[in-house]
Design goal:
This protein has helices at residues 3-6, 28-34, 50-56, 60-65, 89-102, 133-147, 170-181, 189-199, 244-256, 272-282, 306-310, 315-327, 335-354, 358-364, 368-375, 378-383, 391-405, 409-424, 454-471, 483-490, 515-524, 532-536, 541-550, and strands spanning 13-18, 41-44, 72-74, 107-110, 115-116, 119-120, 154-157, 184-188, 215-221, 224-228, 231-235, 262-266, 438-440, 445-449, 497-502, 509-512, 553-555. By secondary structure, it is α/β, with parallel strands linked by helices. An 8-stranded parallel beta sheet has the order 3-2-1-12-9-8-7-4. Strands 14-15-16 form a 3-stranded antiparallel beta sheet, with helices on both faces. A two-stranded antiparallel ribbon has the order 5-6. The protein is globular, with a radius of gyration of 26 Å. It starts with a helix and ends with a strand.
């Protein structure tokens, strides 16, 4: 998309980001209803395919219904702008249909490698390109490939960095990327800080070399600076507060970017009231309406050369960086930060695995060394090379192989329980109870397991709380004491026990039921749900109240 076409982009004003999930904070439409004018548009992340986004994003229909009132800007994050392979044609066709359907005036994405073989990297923590001329050429190829297949301007966002690889300053990298592609820019201030800390330079170092008249959007988000030996590392975590120096830089840049069209507060994880505090601070800097003058002239960008559009990607270098990153190899250019990156990725990986394997993960991969063994394993790599097995299933295979080799029957018993739970969740979901009737809670399934894991479920929760509390004051990570879980798993009484299983945002939940609670939930599972049982058995009223409070039952 040419620079001339960018001149016609609309002024959007102040926006807030969302993953379009009802359970996420802030909830943008609720916030806007409570405080009209707090922001002007919503920038959302979702799958490239609009039908898939409609199925997976629980706020999609709200966004769709209100898009004339609240413009929607698509920030897909599922889009590779670096990596060993170009995005397939079918995915880009789906992206263009999505952009057209919602009326997104442009599409922006971090210049990074987000997924391989269709599998997103854990926690959407992408791999940033090395700041080298060779990687720059690959990013040019990616950007030209995407822009040629979508009907709105593609904007290129400076990525976040842990370890710094390559001699180029990110400002020069992004300026060259703009010059060689004609694409506009998204300037993320937290990502810029991550690079400047890595270089050991001031926050605004090199900004005079960035074509500010190519900046169409600015991102502002929370993050934290931690120290790792001599090295300060910025971690891009949107749930944390925005750093004060970023507010100051934003104020300068709003006036210095003549073709600026939007400022987005990426406030994912902030409660509505706290998100509103930041929006109120930003509102005077970013008006609802602004005359688009484009006073500064955009540098002329010629058509890309045939070489730029057809350059072969350096796939070997991409996979070498993948292997080094996921195996925990320390980069000689930036060893402290590369170790910090490994630690962060392992934390994200553990969180992802805990949603499906909270017990097995504690036993098979409780700490850094064990998690690193899985991260560096063939099982993990296979899923990013076109194998269809999800990450959690690959961990299950790896854990079984490891625990069998180590002859740990207690841990294998826990793995068997969680394998059963995941299979139980594949059964049909409970029906919606009619009005006035009682039915199983949302997502709840019932099943019978051959042993009673009540003590194990209690012990795992109690031990997590115990170790977490001690870790806050520990010099070294505390991951000892987990052997008790294997003992408890082995001594589980051999009696069939009814369990309730349900997915949650954080992990698969297992609840061992008393006989009375199992009877109540079994009655509620009847199709169609009926209140007859509960009227005939008033003695079960306490269990009904408890099950309602726990979300195991719901009223129609």
């Amino acid at each position: 998309m040419s620079a001339a076409a960018r001149a016609g982009l609309p002024w959007l004003g102040l926006g807030i980001s969302t993953n379009l999930q009802r359970t996420d904070l802030p909830q943008p439409y609720r916030l806007l209803d409570a405080r009209p004018g707090a922001f002007d548009f919503v920038e959302y992340s979702a799958p490239l395919d609009v039908d898939e986004a409609r199925r997976e994003a629980t706020l999609f229909e709200t966004m769709w219904a209100r898009r004339a009132e609240v413009p929607a800007l698509f920030h897909p994050v599922h889009l590779n702008l670096w990596g060993p392979e170009l995005e397939p044609e079918a995915r880009l066709e789906a992206l263009d249909r999505h952009l057209t359907a919602v009326g997104s005036p442009w599409v922006g994405n971090d210049v990074a490698w987000w997924h391989a073989g269709g599998e997103m990297f854990p926690g959407y923590v992408y791999l940033s390109p090395p700041l080298t001329e060779r990687a720059l050429a690959d990013c040019v190829r990616h950007a030209l490939h995407v822009q040629a297949r979508v009907s709105v301007p593609l904007l290129l966002e400076n990525p976040a960095f842990f370890a710094l690889r390559g001699p180029l300053h990110v400002v020069d990298f992004m300026a060259a990327l703009h010059q060689r592609t004609g694409c506009g820019l998204v300037l993320d201030l937290g990502h810029l800080l991550s690079h400047q800390l890595a270089r050991g330079v001031a926050l605004d170092d090199g900004l005079e070399r960035l074509p500010l008249d190519a900046v169409v959007e600015i991102h502002l988000a929370g993050g934290v600076v931690t120290r790792h030996g001599p090295r300060a590392v910025y971690v891009d975590d949107h749930s944390l507060p925005v750093r004060e120096e970023l507010f100051g830089l934003l104020e300068r840049l709003v006036a210095a970017c003549p073709r600026l069209r939007a400022v987005t507060f990426e406030g994912d994880g902030h409660p509505d009231a706290l998100a509103l505090v930041t929006l109120e601070r930003l509102r005077p800097l970013v008006p609802r309406e602004r005359e688009v003058t484009d006073a500064a002239r955009t540098p002329e960008v010629g058509p890309p050369s045939d070489d730029a559009a057809t350059t072969a990607l350096d796939a070997a270098a991409c996979w070498a960086l993948f292997d080094a990153t996921f195996s925990g190899s320390e980069d000689p250019e930036d060893p402290a930060a590369s170790r910090a990156e490994t630690d962060y990725r392992l934390t994200v990986l553990a969180d992802r695995l805990d949603r499906a394997w909270p017990l097995t993960r504690l036993m098979a991969a409780p700490g850094r060394d064990e998690l690193l063994a899985f991260s560096a394993s063939r099982e993990l790599r296979d899923g990013f090379e076109g194998r269809a097995l999800p990450l959690t299933a690959r961990f299950g295979r790896w854990a079984r192989r490891r625990l069998v080799a180590e002859r740990r029957p207690g841990a294998l018993a826990a793995l068997a329980l969680e394998t059963w739970a995941q299979q139980t969740l594949q059964s049909a979901p409970p029906p919606e109870p009619p009005p006035g009737h009682v039915g199983l809670g949302t997502g709840v399934r019932l099943g019978m397991f051959p042993t009673d894991p009540s003590e194990l479920l209690h012990a795992a929760g109690a031990l997590r709380r115990h170790l977490t509390g001690r870790a806050l004051t520990a010099v070294d990570p505390l991951i000892s004491g987990l052997a008790v879980l294997e003992d408890v798993a082995l001594r589980a009484p051999m009696r069939p026990t009814t369990l309730a299983v349900r997915p949650s945002a954080h992990r698969v939940e297992l609840v061992a039921l008393t006989a009375a609670m199992a009877r109540v939930l079994g009655a509620a599972r009847a199709t169609p749900p009926t209140s007859t049982f509960f009227a005939a058995h008033p003695e079960d009223a306490p269990e009904v109240r408890e099950a309602l409070a726990l979300g195991l039952l719901r009223l129609g």
